[in-house]
Amino acid sequence: MTANTVLFIAEPQAVTGIFPALKEQGLQAGLADTLSGALGFIKKSKPAAVFCRPKLQGFDAEELLAQARDNNCFPPVVVFSPSGSAEEARRYLELGAQDYWLEPLLWEKIKLLLPAPGATIEPEPQPEPEPAPSPAPAGQTHSTFSIIGQHPAVLRVLALAKRVARSKATVLISGESGTGKEMFARYLHHNSDRVDKPFIAINCAALPEHLLESELFGHEKGAFTGAIARKLGKFELADTGTILLDEITEMDLGLQAKLLRVLQESEFDRVGGMESVKVDVRVLATTNRSIDETVKEGKFREDLFYRLNVIPLKLPALRERGEDVIRLAEFFTAKYCAAYGLGRLPFAEEAKNWLMEYDWPGNVRELQNLMERAVLLAGDGPIRKDHFLMGDAEWVPDDLDEIEQAGNEAAPPPPETAEEALSVMPLHEMEKKLILKSLDETSGNRTRAAELLGISVRTLRNKINEYKKHGIEV
Hints:
Layout: E1 2-9, H1 12-15, H2 19-24, E2 28-32, H3 35-45, E3 47-52, E4 55-56, E5 59-60, H4 61-69, E6 77-81, H5 86-94, E7 99-102, H6 107-110, E8 119-122, E9 144-147, H7 152-164, E10 171-174, H8 181-190, E11 199-203, H9 209-217, H10 234-237, E12 242-246, H11 253-265, E13 267-269, E14 276-278, E15 282-287, H12 291-296, H13 302-308, E16 311-314, H14 324-339, H15 349-357, H16 363-378, H17 400-408, H18 418-421, H19 427-441, H20 446-453, H21 457-469
Parallel strand pairs: 1-2, 1-3, 3-6, 6-7, 10-15, 10-16, 11-12, 12-15
Antiparallel strand pairs: 4-5, 8-9, 13-14
């Protein structure tokens, strides 16, 4: 799967509001409005996630989810709607959807579905790990989940994780950002007796307190302004399965007390609810901070810490893992060579030496991004130190012909079919096309065009002025 690509199956005006946030994060997006167009895009571009309406003219989410059930490598599918019901949400989740959201689409929620580094899913017959972005949704065939690494510190954590995986004990996974904490959480789930049940992750740092409470515990219709229907929370959706509370130390103290009740009593109240909801959920949590210090500072409840810390897993930083750096580099290189249709790329000795000497402040996540960059720049290989483009280093093509060819390339022809037009393009290009199309369809009426796009007239005016500065007639 391509970690920086997502697909939307919706009307253009329903999703353009999220484009600026995606663009800032370096993500590319595809847009489709039919089942055939969506399947063609998924086959060609292998997006990390798909976000779709329940129904459009020429599209039905149930048909897409049927395709997902027959394909173990299908990306996660999220159904989203401007309005909905608990019954509809439960139906799509039972059909295999990763989640069911009410609008608006938020980057903070989208990023939780994108692949994290440090692990992979492999088909059962294969002796070596093969890359894949995430576990299959509930109802699909599951594969063996593997962690890459042979360093003793990693093997000790793996041995402990495997020993406790089949229990219901809470596990607190700590370690620096990018060390693969979520991947170890998924490893626990995949080695538990809940593997065929839901695995749901939520980032506690991504949402403010009132939104996080609703995401965790759900809410009743009318509980607050905008609560137009009952919403099931993540705990309810994870019933009989596993929930991961990522960055647990960022949770507000008031919400920590409500979480403690869930851990002790296995029940909670929806926001605005009158009756308690009973659940059977295995709770995993992660933190990249010193939780002992957070407790001493009074920012984290001591009783909650003891309740979460039944099984502590401390992940080593990548710089402490010795030869695992090379193992992971080779794994990610093979992954991206396969994704981009390239042959095997070896490492020059200077590149290996640099990989072993570098401090890796971003850990496995940084290594993964670096290997994708190196694969794209190396061409036919081998991968050299300058392909990493670290610090002030500059990439130099292997010969001058490549520079001349780049300067002489003609602009690509315009797309001839709707399917071609839906191919992946930079978000700013898609944004420009949608803005120009909306202005054309409204005969230049900026107020109406802004309504169609779901943006303010001021934002539209700024975009038009920006295009005019670059010589584009609007």
